[in-house]
């Protein structure tokens, strides 16, 4: 069974998952290299050591991922940023096999799914392995910056208790300026 958590953007959903992983004893998280330093810093703040993994023209190198010893990975398989590479189908399968073998969690950052005009859409990895993939998405790019809305679809077996989840996801309400006309 999947749980959908609506949150205040990617950062809040990512923070929720990082803290849940750390609470379950996960000590490190692999990241695409190049990638965003802010995400590594957020994971470190939650107690996870960042492990960079090199990319090539087919996306994250799964052999490099296996060498990290990490039990979680954050990646952007549909459109890696900043390179624009799409994770190749055979690498997607190898990534899922890696997660199953290690009891690991894949965090799928679907940061620009609302803007897919350059090619046919690429299916979410979460649909291929719902028991191993937490799908983090947001719709903030097509909304005003103050109305950031994100979501995290993840297996309920990997979800902290409701009380803990509430404490981790509490966010101040977004305010909209009175000058906003819609």
Write the layout of secondary structure elements.
Layout: E1 2-7, H1 10-23, E2 28-33, H2 37-45, E3 49-56, E4 59-60, H3 62-68, E5 72-75, H4 89-102, E6 105-110, E7 133-138, E8 150-155, H5 162-169
Parallel strand pairs: 2-3, 2-5, 5-6, 6-7
Antiparallel strand pairs: 1-8, 3-4, 7-8
Describe the structure.
- This protein is of the alpha/beta class and 182 residues long.
- The chain has one domain: Type I PLP-dependent aspartate aminotransferase-like (Major domain) (Aspartate Aminotransferase, domain 2, 3-Layer(aba) Sandwich), CATH 3.40.640.
- It is built from five helices and eight strands.
- The chain has helices at 10-23, 37-45, 62-68, 89-102, 162-169, and strands spanning 2-7, 28-33, 49-56, 59-60, 72-75, 105-110, 133-138, 150-155.
- It has an eight-stranded mixed β-sheet, with helices on both faces.
- The longest helix has 14 residues, at 10-23.
- The radius of gyration is 16 Å and the shape is globular.
- Residues 158-163, 165-169 and 171-182 have low confidence and may be disordered.
């Amino acid at each position: 069974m999947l749980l959908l958590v609506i949150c205040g953007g990617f950062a809040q959903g990512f923070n929720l998952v990082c803290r849940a992983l750390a609470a379950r004893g996960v000590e490190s998280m692999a990241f695409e290299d190049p990638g965003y330093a802010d995400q590594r810093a957020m994971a470190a703040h939650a107690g996870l050591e960042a492990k960079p993994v090199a990319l090539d023209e087919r996306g994250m190198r799964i052999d490099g991922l296996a060498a990290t010893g990490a039990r979680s990975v954050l990646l952007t398989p549909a459109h890696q940023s900043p390179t624009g590479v799409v994770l190749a189908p055979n690498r997607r399968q190898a990534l899922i096999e890696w997660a199953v073998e290690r009891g690991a969690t894949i965090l799928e950052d679907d940061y620009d799914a609302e803007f897919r005009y350059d090619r046919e859409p690429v299916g979410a990895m979460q649909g291929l392995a719902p028991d191993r993939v937490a799908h983090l998405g947001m719709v903030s790019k097509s909304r005003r910056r103050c109305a950031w809305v994100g979501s995290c679809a993840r297996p309920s077996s990997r979800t902290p208790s409701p009380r803990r989840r509430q404490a981790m996801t509490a966010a101040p309400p977004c305010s909209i300026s009175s000058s906003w006309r819609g």
